[in-house]
Amino acid sequence: MLKDKRSRKIAVVAHCILNQNSRVLGLANYAGMIDELAKLFLKKGYGVVQMPCPELIYGGLKRWSQTKEQYDTSMFRKLCREIAKSVTEQVKEYLNGEVKVAVVIGVEGSPSCGVNETSKGYFGGIVEETGEQKSESVKGSGILIEELRSELKRMKISIPFYGIKYTHLHNDIRRLDRML
Fold first, then answer.
1. Residue 110's closest CA among 169, 53, 155, 67?
2. Does residue 152 lie in a domain region?
3. Which of 57, 85, 122, 157 is 20 to 30 A distant from 13 in Cα terms?
4. Domain count, the chain
5. What CATH number did the domain enclosing 110 receive?
6. Is 89 helix (H, G, I), strand (E, B) or coil?
7. Domain ranges, residue 99
8. pTM for this structure?
9. Please, where are the H alpha helices in 45-168?
């Protein structure tokens, strides 16, 4: 095998981790990307596969915040399934090329990319005066994560999933540092 400087390690991440501009207006926590996580990948020598954002593709940049139940339509689920198949094909290719796919990182509370926590109800949106998000957080995965888990399982590929929380980001970075 030819040798070069590649680390042969990657992480698969939710789109908004590397591009906060894709988030619903009023919900971006960073100017561009989650710097601390990007620095961790650099420090550990990880490449990154950025999953497409199904909410951005489906609803555009000026979309309203919605809950999982609001997004859970046949069209949106089909879009997530297509993204999941594409991401799984990339993962499969990396694994066949002896590249370690260490983790899939989602964002807790997301109707698409929540790993252990998503949103519930039919009352998405943002109250403009307060910036308060009108949704309930519940246990469960977002639609893209559900479809990705299903597709990876179908292809007999096992990768750990990790959900970051903006409110606990420093703890999540420490855990991921140990995990990677």
1. 67
2. yes
3. 122
4. 1
5. 3.40.50
6. helix
7. 9-179
8. 0.92
9. 54-59, 68-71, 74-96, 143-154
